[in-house]
Design a protein that fits this description.
Elements: H1 4-14, H2 22-43, H3 46-58, E1 64-65, E2 72-73, H4 75-86, H5 103-117
Antiparallel strand pairs: 1-2
Helix pairs in contact: 2-4, 3-4, 4-5
């Protein structure tokens, strides 16, 4: 019998953009804009500058970019930096029922992969 994780993985891998309800697409666009805005604001903090320096130290060549700087780093470093920057001011969204705020890390990873793999918004 397949596990819950296997069911979820199968569902997610079979999901197409066209299957998404319009309100989910709209909400996702707003979350993406929110994460980018938060990362740009976080970049101006001392913490943000530490994150930026750490990402550059992790790998200064690659396809990923640190939001607001244009600096190229590896995909993992870009995902790390942009996700951490978006949480710098602790204004990122929270799902109250689970007390989780997943937009910052998930959007940062998705955008880093999209940039590295040259994927469109629909593809990610």
């Amino acid at each position: 019998m397949p596990s819950c994780s296997e069911h979820l993985a199968h569902w997610a891998s079979a999901l197409k953009f066209e299957d998404l309800p319009a309100d989910v697409v709209e909400s996702t666009k707003l979350r993406i804009l929110d994460v980018i805005g938060l990362a740009l604001a976080g970049l101006g903090t001392a913490y943000g500058q530490s994150v930026r320096k750490a990402a550059i130290a992790m790998g200064s060549s690659g396809e990923g970019r640190i939001f607001g700087t244009g600096e190229h780093v590896g995909t993992s470093a870009a995902a790390f930096a942009n996700g951490a920057l978006a949480q710098a001011l602790e204004f990122d969204d929270t799902h109250n029922e689970s007390i989780v705020h997943m937009s910052s890390p998930s959007v940062a990873v998705a955008l880093a992969l999209a940039e590295t793999l040259n994927l469109s918004g629909k593809q990610i």
